[in-house]
Amino acid sequence: MVEIMGNKWHEECGVFGVYSHSADVTGYTCLGLQALQHRGQESAGIAYTDGAWMDVTRGMGLVNEVFRHQVPHMENQYIAIGHVRYSTTGSSLLMNTQPLIANYSGGKLSLAHNGNLTNAAEVRHKLEESGSVFQTSIDTEVILNLIARSRAGSIEERIVESLKQVKGAYCLTIMTENKLIGARDPQGFRPLCIGKLEDGWVLSSETCGLDVIGAEFVRDVAPGEIVTIDETGLRSIPFAMGEQTASCVFEYIYFARPDSIIDGQSVHDARFMMGRMLARESGFKGDVVMSVPDSGTAAATGFAFESGIPFVTGLLKNRYIGRTFIQPNQKSREKSVRLKLNPIKSVVEGKDIIIVDDSIVRGTTSGKIVKMLREAGAKKIYMCISSPPIGYPCYYGIDTSVRKELIAATKTVEEIREYIDADGLHFLSLDGLKKSFDKIDPERLCYACFNNSYPIKQGEQPPGASKYIFEERAKK
Q1: Residue 462 lies in a domain
Q2: Does residue 421 sit in the same domain as residue 348?
Q3: Coil, strand or helix: which one is 160?
Q4: How confident is the model at residue 397 (pLDDT cuts 50, 70, 90)?
Q5: CB of 122 within 8 A of CB of 134?
Q6: Same domain, 145 and 95
Q7: Which pLDDT score, from 0 to 100, does residue 331 have?
Q8: Any idea which residues carry the catalytic annotation?
């Protein structure tokens, strides 16, 4: 089991799909996955079909590593789905890479999943008791089995029947021999959007995936909606619409690319406003404002705009070191912070610095950054965080620590300030966070990691957040 370094939570996956009789669907899918690479760096895969045959190419590593030699191709291919993964349920193993592919009574089926099912263990146990055999340790295979076992007529009816048996977060891209299908859970925890090509359609976790292949944004898939794309065009099937939505607020704080638009809200604009709210709330004064790149940059520029204090690049990020957030031991993790970020001494020396970051999870990385800045000659260091303190774990597809490892679960803000050795520390208030959104209703977002108010019914919340739940159960 690997350990995750430092301050950041890690989103689990990105999904992508293309339907077109004229475009290079696997090539477009590869480009889309590269645009979504920030959502997962453990593995990547593309499944594709020509209407008669279906195949999948998957591997461990980044998209350009998995498809280093060539993008998979099939004569007359016209549908493809792709996936980039950061594991939240199931170990980081080749067998757990997606998309999954299977034969069932209706033909062939491939599925890619972004999210986390809160009742996966319970449903899988029932399926195993009734004879289902599982090849992976990921909750995605639960959905695949439910669809394959369904006796409903059409594939859409099978999917509806299956999704009514699972709970939690899921955005799906599903491919049959002649259809591309997308689905989003009733709460809309994770994003999924629709794009239009000249001769085809696209599904993507974020709009940045549409931009890279020149697809025109059409709309977001609504929470509780299934969309089917085939030779007749696009059709909508509402299966659980009308429930209270609870989209993940961390998509706007950290996970999504800043050039994406989710449910009508610009991610960059929301982060910029978070920085402005930080400046108003904190009242910190300094010589310069800087960010922890890249996720804190938009908020830092907002802070500088509101305060009138100049924004500078004071930390240099090494963009060529790959997946440094996974390290085998503490000593390696400490070295990787210095490898990934390094202060520019001439910028910070002798200055009172306001540094902006998006979140603090364990506090270890923040402490190392403060230490580096002091060693570079910073006079005073004020840290501003563009989210409230994270005191509770997430069950909906974010790889979080158990609660006792979340620093805000056991320490006050003042104690955290002392722990990271900053001269000042301010977390954006929940009210300030909500005021940062101008295009969406902030009451339709999930803030459970801040306020312990989970958007699931009593009794459905799992007892723990272990992503190795199926492996652990097998050992008992």
Answers
A1: no
A2: yes
A3: helix
A4: low
A5: no
A6: yes
A7: 54
A8: 13
Q: Do 275 and 234 share a domain, yes or no?
A: no
Residues 274 and 196 both lie in one domain: no
**Residues near 125 by beta carbon (within 8 Å), at least 6 away in sequence:** none
Pair 300, 229 in one domain: no
CATH code: domain of residue 106: 3.60.20.10
- CA dihedral sign of residues 82, 86, 87, 93: positive
Phi, psi of 191 (to 5 degrees): -85, 150
**Could you tell me whether strands 265-266 and 288-291 are parallel, antiparallel, or unpaired per DSSP bridges?**
unpaired
Dump pLDDT digits (tens) for 16-53: 999 999 999 999 999 999 999 999 999 999 999 999 99
The pLDDT mean for the chain works out to 89
Return the CATH number at 364. 3.40.50.2020
Q: pTM for the complete prediction? A: 0.90
pLDDT in tens, 151-182: 999 999 999 999 999 999 999 999 999 999 99
Can you tell me the distance from the alpha carbon of 147 to that of 277, in angstroms, rounded to the nearest whole number?
46
Together in a domain, 380 and 302: yes
Q: Is the pLDDT of residue 469 over 70?
A: no
pLDDT in tens, 81-129: 999 997 544 455 788 899 999 999 999 999 999 999 989 999 999 999 9
Task: Give which of 348, 395, 346, 390 is closest to 369, Cα–Cα.
Answer: 348
Distance CA 87, CA 64 (A): 19
Judge whether 60 lies within some domain: yes
- In sequence order, which ranges of 139-193 are alpha helices (DSSP H)? 140-149, 155-163
Q: Taking phi first (over 0 means left), then psi (-120 to 50 degrees means alpha), and beta for anything else, what does residue 206 get?
A: beta
Residue 465 in any domain: the answer is no
Judgement on whether residues 218 and 319 belong to the same structural domain of the protein: no
Contact 74, 55 (CB under 8 A): yes
C-beta atoms surrounding 135 within 10 Å:
11
Give the residue numbers spanning the domain of 411: 266-441
Residues 278 and 138 grouped into a single domain: no
Q: Please tell me whether residue 172 adopts helix, strand or coil conformation.
A: strand
How far is CA 319 from each of CA 299, 322, 398, rounded to the nearest angstrom?
Answer: 20, 7, 23
HSE, side-chain direction, 13 A CA sphere, residue 419: 16
Please tell me the total count of domains within the chain. Answer: 2
**Would residue 469 count as lying in a domain?**
no
141 and 150 Cβ atoms separated by less than 8 Å? no
